[in-house]
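Sharing a chain and its predicted structure for anyone who wants a worked example. Both blocks are below, sequence first, tokens second.
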Amino acid sequence: MADWDMKRNDTSPALKMQCQDSDGNGVDVSNADIKFHLVELTSGDIVIDKTPTIIEGTQGEIKYQWEPEDTEKAGLYAAEAEVIYQDGEIETFPNDQDENIIVQIHEDLN
């Protein structure tokens, strides 16, 4: 079962997520560089490696606004946010392999 379902070629709604610590608290990403990754589960290929928008940085809230080419291919994907802090440290969210954000892009009717 996917956490996020959409149809091919859809660009809305944006995927929103919160970068959280192990206690479920938002992690401050205000001054960090962030990359949104989408990986096709069958091949392991990275489909998206782009910068998301920070919604509320002190709470770790970000969103990725889909572009038309992002959803061209139906399939099952895993999404994550890679945060590069100002001191060079890197942290990926979600950071538990069992909690990946699963995205299902379904075939459309035409």
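Comments welcome. The beta strands are 4-7, 15-18, 33-40, 46-50, 53-56, 61-64, 75-84, 90-93, 101-106.
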